[in-house]
Design a protein that fits this description.
By secondary structure, the chain is an alpha+beta fold. The protein has one domain (18-158): Oxidoreductase, molybdopterin-binding domain (Sulfite Oxidase, Chain A, domain 2, Alpha-Beta Complex). 17% of the residues lie in helices and 34% in strands. The chain is built from three helices and ten strands. The chain has helices at residues 2-16, 37-42, 66-72; strands at residues 24-28, 31-35, 46-52, 57-65, 88-94, 99-103, 117-122, 125-126, 135-137, 151-158. The strands form two sheets. A five-stranded mixed sheet has the order 2-1-10-5-6. β1 and β2 form a beta hairpin. The N and C termini lie far apart (72 Å).
């Protein structure tokens, strides 16, 4: 009984002092930022209302634009989005091993008008366990294959250039 009380106390201290496990990591080059669910919830959020291609139902999603998260780790967006930066990809990893790929340019306002969102709520409620705590919402994708659920990390990776010659 005494040990259980100690475990509860340690877990409470971990959460209240910011030592909770991160739910998502975002990385580019040599920079990584990890967010707990509380830290993620405190970031500026955007709402998007659209039809979920899985369910064919309209929902309002709230979350953080992935572009904002990528900027925090130094991804070359804006004026830096040219030359070698056009060969960068963004891989979204999910808890169940699923992964999906985006071109970094898809997150740049000069290349696309859409906002790709890392959502933590749907219709004003936290995402259900089979989708959350975080989910990529990709407006404009006709198929839902890149609407990754249970997102655990987002990483920017280089795509190698093709060697010259035949």
């Amino acid at each position: 009984m005494r040990r259980t009380g100690l475990v509860i106390l340690l877990l409470t201290l971990a959460v209240t002092r910011g030592f909770a496990d991160p739910v998502v990591r975002v990385s580019a080059q040599d920079s990584t930022v990890a967010y707990t669910i509380e830290e993620f919830a405190a970031l500026p959020h955007t709402e998007i209302t659209l039809v979920d291609p899985h369910e064919q139902k309209q929902h309002t999603y709230s979350g953080v634009p992935v572009r904002d998260l990528l900027l925090k780790v130094g991804a070359p967006l804006g004026e830096k989005m040219r030359g070698p930066a056009l060969r960068l990809a963004v891989i979204v990893h999910a808890k169940d091993g699923y992964a999906t790929l985006f071109a970094l340019a898809e997150f740049d306002e000069a290349f696309s008008d859409r906002t790709l969102l890392l959502s933590d709520s749907e219709d004003g409620k936290p995402l259900p366990p089979n989708s959350g705590p975080l989910r990529i919402v990709a407006p404009g994708d006709k198929r839902a294959a890149r609407w990754a659920r249970m997102v655990t990390s987002i990483e920017v990776v280089p795509i190698p250039a093709k060697p010259s010659g035949p």
